Amino acid sequence: MALNLLIMCVGIESVGHLERVTAKELADAKRLNEPPYLKHWTRNRPRRADELSAGGSLYWIIKGAIRVRQPIVGIEALENPVGGKRCCILYGPELIRTLPVPRDPMQGWRYLEAKDAPPDLESVPEEAGDMPPEMVAELRSLGLL
């Protein structure tokens, strides 16, 4: 089972807003002849980096709920010329919507075991029909879906 990271998506208002920001960052990378990956900078390198790189994802908390994930493609530890260590988490541009799961605000990142990660919206049962994702999440938590 893959290990994931849970991160607050600071400054992002919605999944649509994240899509626009992601598209701009990819355009900037292309303009600079860089690989088509996005970067999240953090102070400390995750101790379980090998598990994260083996199929894990970044799960983003947007407006109080986990709403989307992006696959992790690599983790690089770098020395900051100004001082101290830095870590760059490289992740793919694909935005995979998940069932919204409420989460409290936090600082930094947390590990998220695969068994605790919300399912992708594609895996929602057909009985859910056109119900809002929040309703589907509530019904699932009650064992009704």
Order of helices and strands: EHEHEEEEEH
Mean pLDDT metric: 85
The figure for the number of domains is 1
Q: What's the overall geometry?
A: globular
Helix/strand-derived category reads alpha+beta
Q: What is the total tally of β strands?
A: 7
Question: Ends: how far apart?
Answer: 24 Å
Major sheet description: 7 strands, mixed
Helix content: 10-25%
Number of helices: 3
Report the uncertain regions: none
Radius of gyration: 16 Å
The share of residues in extended strands comes to 35-45%
Characteristic key phrases:
single chain; alpha+beta; seven-stranded mixed beta sheet
Describe, in short, the structure shown:
The protein contains 3 helices and 7 strands, in the order E-H-E-H-E-E-E-E-E-H.
